[in-house]
Amino acid sequence: MTFKLTPIAISLVLSFGLFGCNNDNNNQPTIPTPDTSLPATPIINMAVLKYIDPMIGTAASGHTFPGAVVPRGMVQLSPDTFKGTNTDTESGQNPWHSASGYWDASDYVAGDVLATDLNIYGFSHTHLSGTGATDLGDILVLPYSDIANSENNAFNKATEIASPGYYSVVLNNGNIKAELTTTTRVGIHRYTYEQGADRKIKLDLAHTLAANNGESLQNRVELVDEYTIRGRRVSTGWFQGQDIFFYAQFNQPIAHAMIARDGGDAMNMQMGAVYGSINSPNKQQITYLDFGKGDQPIEMRVALSPVDWDGAQKNLEAETPTYNFANIKANAELAWAKELATVQVKGGSEAEKTNFYTAMYHAMIAPVEYQDVDGRYRDLLGGVRQADGYKNYSVYSTWDTFRAVHPLLTITNPQHATDLANDLIRKSQETGLLPKWEGYGEETGTMIGYPATAIIGDAVVKGLDVDAKDALEAAKKSAYYRPYDFPQIPDHTLQAVMAGQLSYYERDKCVGLPNWNSVSYALEFSYYDWTIAQMAKVAGDDAAYKEFNDRAYWSLNHWDKEAGFFVPVKLNSCEKEFASDTFNPYSSDAYWYTEGNAWQWQWTFMQDIDKLTEVMGGTEGFNTKLNDLFTADTDGGENHQDMTGFIGQYIHGNEPSHHVIYLYNRTNESWKTQEYLDRVYKEFYKPTPDGIIGNEDVGQMSAWYIMSAMGFYQVTPTDPTYTIGRPIFDEVTIKLPTGDFTITADNNSSDNKYVKSVLINGKPLDVFNSFEHSEIKAGGTLHFVMTADKSQAMAARLN
């Protein structure tokens, strides 16, 4: 149903159209009151929000968080239940699962569900979604009544409520109800205590999600007045040298404030005194605030800033000028409904709609807007800059998200895709190199190659408002091993972003052992070089095109024709390290491959799949290699922890495999694309806490599902071509800036998984069941006819 947001209609929409993840009256969407207003807006379908379940991915290795966040919000206010310390309540648990700060350790497959007396440290304001590494958890807040419960508390799953922009739970010790909501830069807390109980809050600047050597370095805090506290936290870990400021206000006066510093006893805080000077920093500062007994809940607004605490104060005053939890929650819900309105689906099961819209939700959490309301932000070297006509973003997991997150945005939100591509280019101009894995103003250099080139390249070839020459210049700087050109970049960052493997690749046209991830580096360098060549072509730079197009084939020096895989080679010579008949493709040796083995990495030569087909023995050999992949022994070797979601040696739980199923469209068995997609949908995406088969990876696992569920996928980012798959829904409408693009699937059902015929804008598909990005246009259609009969499945045109 669609509702126009007049005051009366808003009340109807919000009371009728929204449901949380648990059936609890306290989670009914906000009903506006005379002092609660929502901004004027076009018609928005609020009912879609019932299909978002933030609990999906919080168990197993999904590593998502259930807390409150708005689209692209700098604040992710969420409970912390697992820090990755391997001590106390976490003893014996894998610290890897602390990535988002929240982990449900239940084994849902075995039926071993942990539901009562679960540990909780409190609620912090920054979290990563779906990563394989841990950081953040800044500015922890824990309400308590008894000092015995000021370190941590416990909760029961039955009291948890998670919905878009809202989270609530009851803390067992003290029976304190915690409610959270957010704006872009402000986290809003509401704590309801038992009648007559002491109302106390711990504000912990020392709290750290610690699995990746996380540590608090410097804390500063000041009790400004009886309603206000502000501070600064500098920490290290995966994000080295992260610096964040906060400004917090309360709806009730602080009756008594104490502070404990660096493990010492708590002492009284003096109004206006700053605790933790630059000359004498405190690594740990924990503030204990006592509001006395009372009948009113304690409401708390905490604004963050990457620049200073004056910026945090301005953010608070601009986004939450008054205490109105209901209004802020309603605005967060509206923000999500507006974002989700870009794609509308009909048909499919309730579970499939939940998978789909929760995937959209996860894909819209990051990159986050990382600047103050006045436009100030810190660049990757720590300098303060002023945004003029643009926004600064952060949390770029480019190795993951270049594959589907950014290509999806070029369709569903081309302006945002443009903004992100230009943001990456601007970061290169400001600091020297394109980001690789950047978070909260700090570059980690995690993963391999220079994957941002695939993001900006895709934007360039699709004709977005991105300057091809600027894009090319930024990409070229990252593609040459020239560390001496960037003295401004700290050594530890430069060594990670401009990895030494690149020097061997340039010198030898391969990456020999004992280089870490050697084969994977070579393959990725070659692909990214191809994306640079495509930018050069658009920019009209013939010399650069020739240079980088040539480099795009160097990784073929790792191809072993007899073994049939890309294999490790010797340093300096590119000679094969192993005899072909002794090579073990099941080995996930980290000196050879990144988070996988030869079975997965043979398909990452995405830049010229015609050439890959040729070296694999032509169409028949290519088809055989695909069949061998999906029927290989799942238990053939020791696996990296990121290797999950097996079908043979296809692993859906990690990104290098995500395009592989679609390669069957280049064979005489194109129906297998639909067959294996149907299996992945049903086995690896479920509306349950363990419903994501691997790390969600900042939207990538979700974006794959969104595109695939709509019926198509982009195999090679920076090649503006899509190939068809197996649509889940009867109809999908994509709201483009100038009109609608509609995807329909006649005779579609759970059993009718094969594509009988398909037309794009009334015309047959191109070679390999493909169509061009330019054909996704206002008034356009992609029309499928489905069947349960494999013999009726359409064959792909192979030439």
TrEMBL record:
One Pfam family in the UniProt entry: Glyco_hydro_92
InterPro entries reported for this sequence: 6-hairpin_glycosidase_sf, GH-type_carb-bd, GH92_a_mannosidase_put, GH92_N, Glyco_hydro_92, PNGase
Residues covered by the Glycosyl hydrolase family domain: 311-787
PROSITE patterns: PROKAR_LIPOPROTEIN (PS51257)
GO molecular function, one term: hydrolase activity
Keywords: Hydrolase, Signal
Domain Glycosyl hydrolase family 92 N-terminal intervals: 51-305
Residues spanning the signal sequence: 1-20
Superkingdom per UniProt: Bacteria
Protein name: Glycoside hydrolase family 92 protein
Annotated source species: Photobacterium iliopiscarium
